[in-house]
Design brief:
This protein is an alpha+beta fold and 390 residues long. It has 12 helices and 10 strands. It folds into 3 domains: 115 residues, Butyryl-Coa Dehydrogenase, subunit A, domain 1 (Orthogonal Bundle); 101 residues, Butyryl-CoA Dehydrogenase, subunit A, domain 2 (Beta Barrel), CATH 2.40.110.10; 156 residues, Butyryl-CoA Dehydrogenase, subunit A, domain 3, CATH 1.20.140. It has a 4-stranded mixed sheet with strand order 1-4-5-8, with helices on one face. The chain is globular. The protein starts with 6 loop residues before the first helix and ends in a 5-residue tail after the last helix.
């Protein structure tokens, strides 16, 4: 596969890089992560109303821009470079792609239009533990005369406190494995819904625990066919693992850039420490790791584009499980390696609060386990290559 950016894709990348330099500099990140909401609502309105970023992956039929995973990955990479604090991964990636992958109905069209405009912030609650799998879904959807009653909990729900629309994966009573999985859309303030914020290592991204106790929803709240949501949900999670990998790629690039800049400024024995061979070797190893991750991420994004396109190349789309796991494992390890090296190359100030490397290290460590650890993804690759099912 030959890959090169189109003029439109370069414009998305370059404009995002320029705008985020202003909207998400170090001071803005620190202010957002210390706020109650975890992000600046004014910045969210800016990216929604003026830039239409939440509409990027929403089909044009639902008032979106109708673009695909490659464009979304370009945007996520730039957000990762700037540690952008906003519910974008939760709403514009996880929730949006879940609605796209699972089914067509009137509710889906309405929710997507509201999410595209930024009027609604949504998130996806897909299981009781990381990583994902049908066996981790602990919410039970019991059919009633009017619809369903939901009971159970979901841990580690991304941006739970910021969301006003919850997409909750649940299983029918007595169902096992992938059979009987449903997806429901419900208001975050519905009766019986409890949202509890969780203390996290990475203060730039919020997680919460969702508890559902006798939550009654109408049949129209179900997304897609009854009991048939797992295939679409799994596809959504694989594509979102690629989007998270793109964000991690951006973070790794930022760690490399800030390390090189610092070593050029820091002088020892009368010259910049960047001139010492040991420093050059470490920077070169970081660069090679970043380029490996970049190749894996954008190959996976191209595969995801074919998988989400009804008329896409089926042979390429079939590589999505392998490509997603490769991208996520490679990007996760690269990000943590580069963040750790950035702290070392900054020397005595590398771990201080005033410098940024520790913020990247925390984001790298937290993202390493979300949507599957590198070890878990390598196991998935092994299963895929050996023809086994997970």
């Amino acid at each position: 596969m030959e890959f090169s950016l189109t003029d439109e894709q370069r414009m998305i990348r370059d404009s995002a890089e320029s705008l985020l330099a202003d909207l998400s500099d170090s001071a803005a990140v620190r202010a957002a992560m210390q706020s109650e909401a975890g992000h600046d609502p004014a910045v969210w309105r800016t990216i929604a109303e003026e830039l239409a970023w939440p509409a990027l992956a929403v089909p044009e039929a639902h008032e979106g821009l109708g673009l695909g995973p490659v464009e979304l990955a370009l945007l996520m990479e730039q957000m990762g470079r700037r540690l952008f604090c906003a519910p974008f991964l939760a709403s514009a990636c996880l929730a949006t792609l879940a609605l796209r992958c699972i089914g067509e109905n009137d509710g889906q069209r309405r929710w997507l239009a509201e999410m595209a405009s930024g009027r609604r912030v949504a998130t996806l609650a897909f299981g009781g533990a990381q990583p994902w799998g049908p066996e981790t879904i602990s919410v039970v959807a019991t059919p009633t005369a009017e619809g369903y009653r939901l009971d159970g909990e979901c841990r580690q729900v991304l941006e739970l406190q910021a969301a006003d629309l919850l997409l909750v994966a649940a299983r029918l009573p007595g169902s096992r494995d992938a059979q009987g999985v449903c997806l429901f859309a419900l208001e975050a303030d519905a009766a019986g819904v409890t949202r509890t914020p969780l203390p996290t290592l990475d203060q730039t991204r919020r997680l919460g625990r969702l508890e559902l106790a006798g939550v009654d929803v109408a049949a129209a709240a179900r997304v897609g066919a009854e009991g048939e949501a797992w295939a679409g949900l799994e596809q959504c999670l694989r594509v979102c693992a690629i989007m998270l990998a793109a964000e991690q790629l951006g973070g790794a690039q930022a760690c490399l850039d800030m390390s090189v800049a610092y070593t050029l400024e820091r002088h020892q024995f009368g010259r910049p420490i960047a001139g010492f061979q040991a420093i050059k070797h470490r920077a070169a190893e970081m660069m090679l790791a970043v380029e490996r991750a970049r190749s894996a991420v954008y190959y996976a994004a191209c595969v995801a584009a074919e998988a989400l396109d009804p008329e896409g190349d089926a042979a390429v789309a079939a590589e999505l499980p392998l490509a997603a796991s490769l991208a996520k494992s490679e990007a996760s390890e690269t990000y943590f390696h580069c963040a750790a090296e950035a702290i070392q190359l900054h020397g005595g100030v590398g771990f201080t609060w005033e410098y940024d490397p520790h913020l990247y290290l925390k984001r790298a460590r937290a993202g390493e386990s979300y949507l599957g650890t590198p070890a878990w993804h390598r196991e998935q690759m092994a299963r895929e290559l050996m023809g086994e099912t997970s």
